[in-house]
Amino acid sequence: MNHQDQIEALTDALRIRAGLRNPGVIAHPAAERFAEQNVLLNLAEAFGEMNPRKGSGPTAALAAGLTSSDFITVLSDTARAVLISKLAAFGEHRLICAERELPNFHNHDFPLVDSDPLLDEISENGEIPNDVFVTAVEGLQARVRPFGKNLFLRRQLIRNDDIGLFSGLLGNIAASAARLEAKLVFNLIESNPLMGDQMVMFHEDHGNIGAVAPLALGSLSEGFAALRNMLLPSGEKANLEARYIVVSPGFELYARGLLRDYDLKSVGVVVAPWITSTNWYLVADPKLAPTVSLLYLKGSKRGVTVGKARPKPGQENRDGVTLGVRFDTGVVAVGRVGIFQGRIPS
Length: 346
Known about the structure:
Structural class: alpha/beta
Number of helices: 9
Distance between the termini: 70 Å
Radius of gyration: 26 Å
């Protein structure tokens, strides 16, 4: 096996050990065998041998490997894949959100636009009688906000091949990122924010807020009907189907039981400890009627980036590898048609 083959096999072995088996991807034939060995140490030494320093032997190869950009790239790519996988497991809030990429961290305008005009019948001569004038209402702005943590991997962790510890810590970071993002989403919804037209998200005049009543078939029916009857900017009825019910933890089992009793299998339950116990929400499919949008930097993997981190002053000579884990995200209210707020008596 040549040197490049060995590195490819070890890279796939690292992904296997980190729990990243992908049925659609064929791993290197030797990856399973290499996964039973000291993957981190062997990988660092393999990269070190490609970029030799003064001295010889495995110690010198390891020292060179720990500072190799190739080794750090493999670690970063693996870490990012683990984070994205774990984020998906914790990302229940993303079910009710649309997503949008922004080019930078600057504030961006999010106007309300009449995107559902009535279609006109085309005349016999092929002319369309009316144009659609798209007018944006300025005023609503949002941006991607940066969050992150540096992750220092000591040489001893590499020697001990402690991939389990590495993956476990990444799982904790992913859970923290998911909670942070979910909190941003539900705090925004609970704040009843001003939209781009300078009117609040929930109001009786919009037909998206219910009467104060216990969470039961009657109030659920009111919410279902409201999503159907909400008016689009064109004046047409939205005719949207309820896709998710969002409840506080105290109502989780009750909501699941209610949906089961009435065979509402198409409605999923999203539980959010960040909403008050007297509120609940019905949400349409965000692909059909986006109301809240998550914001990510363009080109990022849903906000996740991992790479070599610059050491802090006085830590330049630490014996190991420092990875910078970044999670850049934001949230903005983009519509009110497609979400209904129910209110439970306190």
